Amino acid sequence: MDVAALRLQLDLQLFAGEKTEDATPKKKQDARKQGQVAKSMELPAAFILFFSFLAFYLFGGFMKGHLVGVFRSIYTDFLLVDLTSPNMMVLYEQLALQMLLILSPIFVIAVVIAVLGNYLQFGFLLTGDPLMMKFSKMNPLEGAKRMFSMRSVVEFLKSMLKMSIIGYVVYSVLWGEKAHIMQLAHLPLQEILTFTSSLVLNLGVKIGGILIILAIFDFLYQKYEHEKNLRMSKQDIKDEYKKSEGDPLIKGKIREKQRRMAMQRMMQDVPKADVIITNPTHFAVALQYDGSKMQAPTVIAKGTDFVALKIRQVAKDHGVATIENKPLARALYAQVEIGEAIPADMFQAVAEVLAYVYKLKGKAL
């Protein structure tokens, strides 16, 4: 082999080790079982923030009514009661129940949106593999690599971009309301609370919407990184195929061994035959007929060339009659498999051969 050919072979081997191929379905399925899926932790958080503030818009009247009822109950029903343990327990139980009722819409929406936000990313997935303790995660060198990796840089830049955008939105909204903010000192407490709550809800919905947009881009980035990490080399794909389908070399050896075992079993059945019908040299078919057990003569062995020669040799050694009938030998070999009875259209021809053989042996058909 010259130097150029050797260099080309080495280059191809190096190229085979590069992870340039998309992950196979099996690789993706195995990664999913281990909890490795494309997901953005910011997407559910952004959905929760947006829909929680939106819930204040939808259920604000309900929450305000119950909150006013709580204060009214405190000042009308419990202001003059005796400070005893039973009275305080009743008060705390009612306050806890009312606060739970007030906050229940937010809690329900947060839980539903959190589940839905993850389901939209990777569907239903239930696995305990990420919860298992792995000592590799406690390796300080691996931790340092993750800390100073390109992924950490991207996360830092993403956080800075997010904070800059949120800061600009907050500044622009507050700057736009500066005239109202400067007049708050001259307004009644109720109007101050109304304006402040409206301003906070406005900021919350806007920030939540912006975070959702950023989270969608983050999800696309995470999906790209996930697929990139799952990429395989050509050699990886070959190895996976060998593991799933079996090494072709080993499978070939198994098939060869199976053929030899089948050949041995077939040759062991040749002495049981009543007659061997030959071509005379290219084909050999062994027939057996037992009137008490079989409805028709059955092929128990057949072969061509070397196998046919082996069948004739075994038949000769065990005194099995050999009859030359070229058309019949070809037809039996082509149409009847080992262990099958001959078809009806061959009954006449086979019966004549068996009758001749039995006549030679002095047996009755």
UniProtKB/TrEMBL annotation:
InterPro entries: FlhB, T3SS_substrate_exporter, T3SS_substrate_exporter_C
UniProt function note: Required for formation of the rod structure in the basal body of the flagellar apparatus. Together with FliI and FliH, may constitute the export apparatus of flagellin.
GO biological process terms held by the UniProt record: bacterial-type flagellum assembly; protein secretion
Tagged with keyword Ribosomal protein: no
Record carries keyword Protein transport: yes
Domain of life: Bacteria
Species of provenance: Paenibacillus validus
Primary location class: membrane
Family: Belongs to the type III secretion exporter family.
Membrane topology classification: Multi-pass membrane protein
Subcellular compartments: Cell membrane
The entry's keywords: Bacterial flagellum biogenesis, Bacterial flagellum protein export, Cell membrane, Cell projection, Cilium, Flagellum, Membrane, Protein transport, Transmembrane, Transmembrane helix, Transport
Listed GO CC annotations: plasma membrane
Protein name: Flagellar biosynthetic protein FlhB
Transmembrane segments: 43-63, 95-128, 156-175, 195-221
